[in-house]
Amino acid sequence: MAATVPYVPQSLQASVNHPPTKITSVKALAELPGLASIPTFYISNFASPHDHQIIFSDPDEDAIPVIDFSLLTSNGLDERFEIIQQLRKVCQDWGFFMVINHGVPESLMKAIIDASKGFFELTEDEKQEFEAKHVLDPIRCGTSFNVSADKVLFWRNFLKVFVHPKFHSPSKPPSFSEIALEYSKRVREVARELVKGISEDRTLNLENGFQILVANFYPTCPQPELTIGVPLHTDHGLLTLLMQNEVGGLQVLHEGKWVTVDPIPNSFLVNVGDHIEILSNGKYKSLMHRALVNNKATRISIAVQHGPALDEVVSPASEFVDNESNPPAYRAIKYQDYVELQQSNTLDGKSFLENIRIY
C-alpha cells in the first residue's frame, strides 16, 4: 500500500520558490496528521544555530545580568543609587537583563499565558476576524512577521494588541480582556520605574506612551533546524518586558556570541529597544535577538513593548550629546513613522536603526 501523504489545504500549498498568497496559521499546519517535513517556503537561511559563524557562549561566563526591582523602588537612597548605576551599566554593556522581585503576581503572569493560549486555540474562522491588515490596526493576528512581504515565512503565530493609552482587546476568549488589561497595567508600572532609572531625561514618561501586548505562539516543528520562529531583530520601542511558558527558545547576540536565555522563574526578561538607543545616542544598546523553535513542545511568550507617544518626535537627548566630541548619531523621527516603517518591512538580520543613523 502506498504511504499516506498528509493533506495540505490549498492555502498552505506553494511552489518551490514562492510562498502561497495566503497563510493564516502555522498552528493549523503543525497539527496536520503525519506532518514529517515543512513546506519549502519555511526553510530559512536564518535558521542554522551556527549561521554567520557565530559561536555559542559559555553560560557560566555570559549569564544575563539580574536586576532586583525591589531595590529600584526602595526608600533607601544608597540602595537606589547603587541599583540605578548597575541598571545603566547593564544597559550599556548588554541591553538585556532579567528583573526579579517586580511585584507582578505570578498568578497574573500564568493567567495571561493561559488566556493567550486560549486565543490561539480558537477556530481559524474565529481568529479570521482579527487577521492582520495594517500594522497600526489595534488588534491583529497573523503569522510570520510580514506575510505580505516575507519571501520566507517564520514558524510563528502572533496576536498584537494595543493596550495603552487606549485599551483594545479581542472579544474571545471571554477572559482575555480582563486579564490583559490588568496585566498591561502592572507591567507598565514596572517599565515606568525602569525607564526612570535608565535616563535622567524626565520627558521619558509612559503616561501617554504607546504600549503593545504581543502574544507569540511557536508550535512544535518536525524540522526545527530548517526554520525559525523569528530571525535576528531589535525591538522598536523603549523597553520590552517578556516572559514565557516553561519552553525556551530565545537567544541574544552578545559580543558575537549566542546567549541562550534560561529565565529565572517569575521574572521578566527586559531588553533595551531602538528608541532607548536613539535617546541615549548609542550609549545604551538595542541588542539583536531571535526565537528558535523545537520538535518537543509549544512555546508561548508574552512581550509587552513600551514606547513614547506615537506622535512624539524622538532624537538623541541633550544629556547624551556633545556636538564636538559626541554629535547626534541618529536623525529625529516621529515614533509612529518608525513603527510603521519597521513593521511594514521584512526582517533581514539587520537593525532598522541603520535607516536613521547619521554617518
CATH superfamily: B-lactam Antibiotic, Isopenicillin N Synthase, Chain
Low-confidence stretches: 1-21, 48-57
Q: Total domains, how many?
A: 1
Q: Which band does the percent of strand residues land in?
A: 15-25%
Order of helices and strands: HEEHHEHHEEHEEEEEEHEEEEH
- Rg over alpha carbons: 20 Å
CATH topology, what is it called? Jelly Rolls
- The structural class is alpha+beta
- Number of distinct helices: 8
Q: What would the average pLDDT be, to the nearest integer? A: 86
Total strands: the figure is 15
Q: Main beta sheet, described?
A: 8 strands, mixed
Work out the helicity level. Answer: 10-25%
Which CATH C-level class is it? Mainly Beta
Q: Overall 3D geometry?
A: globular
Annotation keywords:
359 residues, alpha+beta, Jelly Rolls, eight-stranded mixed β-sheet, five-stranded mixed β-sheet
Describe it for me?
With 359 residues, this protein is an alpha+beta fold. It has one domain: Sandwich (Jelly Rolls). It is 24% helix and 20% strand. The strands form three sheets. The chain has an eight-stranded mixed β-sheet. Helix 4 crosses helix 6. The longest helix has 23 residues. It holds the Pfam family 2OG-FeII_Oxy. This is Protein DMR6-LIKE OXYGENASE 2-like. Keywords: Iron, Metal-binding, Oxidoreductase.
